[in-house]
Design a protein that fits this description.
With about 375 residues, the chain is α/β, with parallel strands linked by helices. It has helices at about 50-60, 85-100, 155-175, 190-195, 210-215, 215-230, 250-265, 285-290, 295-300, 315-320, 335, 340-345, 375-385, and strands at about 30, 65-70, 105-110, 130, 140, 145-150, 155, 180-185, 235-240, 270-275, 305-310, 330. The strands form three sheets. It has an eight-stranded parallel β-sheet. β5 (about 140) and β6 form a beta hairpin. It starts with about 30 loop residues before the first strand and ends with a helix.
């Protein structure tokens, strides 16, 4: 396992301490990266809304936080997320980092490039690029409403090298301003994931075809980031059977077995493994038919920290930790309406399941900062009764 503990393996739970030289925590709950779109789309600068959100999560018991995916260049999918390629954006993130550290928590910047999961309306009119000229089927959420996805241009070798350097620079920038780590987003159908999986990478050069060739670029990015920040603070997110953004791989077990063995050789700090999600009926093989249990099938290949992700609750989280199938568990959706999720787990308090999806992914404070903690809700109800 990627941790040490005085507890025996069968007594560990989500609320057990996690003893690691970089990512220490009094519990094993991780705030997963989520796209919440609270920045100005004109500049993608992290603002005070982000400072308040992330510090509130940290204050209420979550001491390991993964940020929203942060764009490494203007050619990215979410211009309302906090990006990390200008001095102004980095200054905004520095305010977030300082606020989270003040609450005694660690914060890790997730960096990404959207690749084909983008639209000209979201990147100054530029046509997105990708490993191969294969468009995502369906519509994209653009700054001008829903529009059909466009066919990306196939990346040149020069563009591949350029993007690799952008990842390297972003990783270094993150550590320089105080982030405790960096996570590469190699999931959910974004650029690194597009190179990884067979459906979106049909290249015939050294960056496509065989598993080794398809993984060449993602591993080169890993190596570049290790050169920039070291292996101890670097992690990666993977989604072998996730279909979000119209993704598919013909043999994910072969692909990710090779990938994880190579990541293990490099001794990076952690892997976040995202389970099945986003079934859309576009492919004949269901994700669960390909790899029925990602943790059982793949965890043994990687000796660093293993973070299980997607569709977990307290019971399921305890189960994978107690059975040695994960070191940590990351939660996304549950944090939207429960900024005090850890405290609710600790005290057996009921979770708030009422999420307003209409203002979840874009907007201002409403739907982002106005979900009360359990104690705040009790105080509100008490005052209402007295009045």
């Amino acid at each position: 396992m990627g941790c040490s503990s005085s507890n025996s393996a069968n007594t560990l739970s989500l609320l057990s301490s996690f003893d690691h030289k970089v990512f220490k925590s009094p519990n094993r709950v991780v705030h997963a990266a989520m796209t919440r779109g609270r920045c100005d789309y004109m500049n993608s600068i992290p603002n005070d809304l982000l400072v308040q959100y992330y510090s509130k999560v940290a204050k209420n018991g979550c001491k390991l936080i993964l940020t929203e995916c942060s764009g490494i260049s203007p050619n990215n999918a979410f211009c309302t997320n906090g990006s990390c390629y200008t001095d102004e954006q980095l200054a905004g993130w520095k305010n977030v980092v300082d606020a989270v550290h003040k609450e005694g928590a660690k914060i890790i910047l997730q960096i990404f490039h959207g690749g084909r999961a983008n639209h000209p309306d979201n990147c100054n009119g530029n046509t997105p690029f990708a490993p191969s000229p294969i468009a995502i089927r369906g519509e994209d959420h653009t700054m001008n409403g829903k529009k059909p996805h466009v066919e990306p241009t196939e990346m040149t070798i020069e563009q591949i090298m350029e993007v690799k350097e952008l990842f390297k620079k972003a990783a270094k920038n993150a550590i320089d301003i105080g982030f405790d780590g960096v996570q590469l987003h190699n999931a959910n159908g974004y650029l690194l994931d597009q190179f990884t999986r067979s459906y979106t990478n049909t290249r015939t050069d050294n960056y496509g075809g065989s598993v080794e060739n398809r993984l060449r670029f993602p591993l080169e990015v890993v190596d570049a980031c290790i050169e920039a920040i070291g292996k101890e603070k670097l992690g990666i997110k993977l989604s072998p059977v996730g279909r979000y953004n119209d993704m598919f791989d013909e043999n994910p077990l072969e692909t990710y077995t090779y990938f994880l063995k190579e990541l293990n050789k490099r001794k990076i700090a952690f892997v976040e493994m995202m389970g099945p999600f986003g079934e859309d009926g576009l492919h004949t093989i269901k994700p669960t038919d390909q790899i029925s249990d990602l943790n059982k099938a793949l965890k043994s290949l990687f000796k660093g920290i293993w973070i299980a992700n997607a569709q977990y609750d307290l019971e399921k989280g305890n189960h994978v930790i107690q059975h040695g199938l994960a070191d940590l568990v990351s939660f996304g959706t549950k944090f939207i309406s429960n900024p005090d999720l850890v405290k609710r787990f600790e005290n057996g308090w009921k979770l708030n399941e009422d999420i307003n999806w209409g203002n979840c992914f874009y907007g201002g404070a409403e739907g982002y900062l106005d979900y009360p903690t359990y104690e705040e809700q009790l105080e509100k109800e008490k005052n209402e009764q007295q009045n």
